[in-house]
Write a structure and sequence with these properties.
Layout (H helix, E strand, L loop, with lengths): L1 H25 L16 E7 L1 H7 L6 E8 L5 E10 L2 H6 L5 E4 L15 E5 L6 H20 L6 E10 L5 E10 L2 H7 L2 E4 L11 H13 L13 E6 L8 E4 L36 H13 L1 H9 L6 H18 L4 H6 L5
Parallel strand pairs: 1-6
Antiparallel strand pairs: 1-2, 2-3, 3-4, 4-5, 5-7, 6-7, 8-9, 9-10
Length: 348
């Protein structure tokens, strides 16, 4: 009987340990309901999948299985089975490791803010060279700059990702990525709804927000966007009869001169040969309207520079290059003929 009693006690203790382990790693009662795009510190995740298979199927538009490990703190990991799929027409062709969708629809992530989210967009390092990690960090900063300029903007979260390649004996690689706020989540913050129409031109959108968006694109030297074609621009409509005009919200800035990726090229129909050459693609306005936008950007200069200079994850030389390029923009704003020479000559 003593022997049987000892076995029962040992079995009971083992069950308790299993229960504790289950709580630590996958228990849904863990409080992870915070807005994942609110914190400024990098998120840490692990993605485990067959990278070789991903690279082979990146142009087929097919999902492949993966395991997502979301690190809540030093003692808690949330583990979920998800699917991933490459995205981006050019980057699927060009990148060895293109950006992808994280399909979490059936993953049951224990976060109330993600209950209606099916997919999350992850901006990746494209290739293994050091410069590509810098491209990711710079694009993150561009999203943060636009957050300073407009509330109607996508939030971005810097992510430190550990990749575990099951196709290469669980080889590990640690790189930077950026997770982008889903469109529906962004629209919901403003009591708005996404618009899917393709026939809305730049002069039919909300004037003030459109002018800020256009001047921002000019500042970072990005011409890879179109409001009418909804290329790298989402449109949202505020659910308010007093504000009927759609608001443009830009995204995808890897073709901007401020990043200066080696693969970026200006549009074929534009009379510029380099993405570092600024070209204004906003709507034509009166001088008074232009000046309102120009003055607004001057007011934001110090906060933009402070954002870049205080960003600890980018090398000082890269930050200095960004500041130097923005200095040229701000010097140009002071030209007496800036509106006539740089805005009216190319506006739409």
């Amino acid at each position: 009987m003593k022997y049987l009693f000892s076995i029962l006690v040992l079995f009971s203790c083992t069950l308790q340990l299993w229960a504790q382990e289950e709580q630590v790693f996958i228990e849904d009662t863990v409080d992870v309901n915070l807005d994942i795009f609110a914190p400024e510190d990098p998120m840490e995740i692990t993605l485990k999948f067959n990278i070789k298979e991903y690279q082979k199927t990146k142009n087929k538009g097919a999902f492949i299985p993966a395991d997502l490990y979301y690190h809540v703190d030093d003692s808690i990991d949330i583990v979920r089975h998800i699917r991933i799929k490459a995205r981006g027409n050019f980057r699927r062709q060009h990148c060895r490791f293109p950006p992808f969708w994280l399909n979490i629809k059936k993953a049951y992530i224990p976060n109330k803010n993600l209950k209606t989210t099916n997919k999350l967009k992850l901006i990746t390092h494209c290739k293994g060279a050091r410069a590509y990690n810098n491209y990711v960090l710079k694009e993150y900063l561009i999203y943060k700059i636009y957050n300073l300029l407009s509330p109607y903007s996508f939030r971005a979260r810097l992510v430190r990702v550990k990749y575990i390649d099951t196709g290469r004996k669980n080889k590990e690689n640690l790189t930077w990525a950026v997770m982008l706020e889903p469109e529906a989540m962004m629209a919901e913050r403003f009591n708005a709804t996404p618009i899917k129409l393709n026939n809305i031109g730049i002069k039919q959108t909300a004037e003030e927000q459109t002018d800020v968006m256009a001047m921002f694109q000019y500042m970072v030297s990005n011409t890879d966007f179109s409001v009418a074609g909804r290329h790298n621009v989402k449109l949202i409509a505020i659910l308010d009869y007093d504000r009927p005009e759609p608001i443009p919200v830009p995204y995808d800035f890897d073709y901007s001169g401020l990043i200066d990726t080696y693969y970026a090229q200006p549009g074929e129909n534009l009379p510029i040969k380099d993405v570092r050459e600024r070209y204004y693609l906003g709507a034509c306005r009166s001088d008074a309207q232009y000046m309102k936008t120009i003055d607004y950007f001057k007011q934001k200069k110090e906060s933009i520079y402070a954002l870049i200079n205080s960003f600890e994850y980018l090398e000082q030389a890269e930050k200095s290059d960004m500041i130097k390029y923005l200095d040229l923009f701000y010097r140009t704003l002071e030209y007496d003929n800036f509106i006539e020479l740089y805005l009216n000559s190319t506006c739409r």
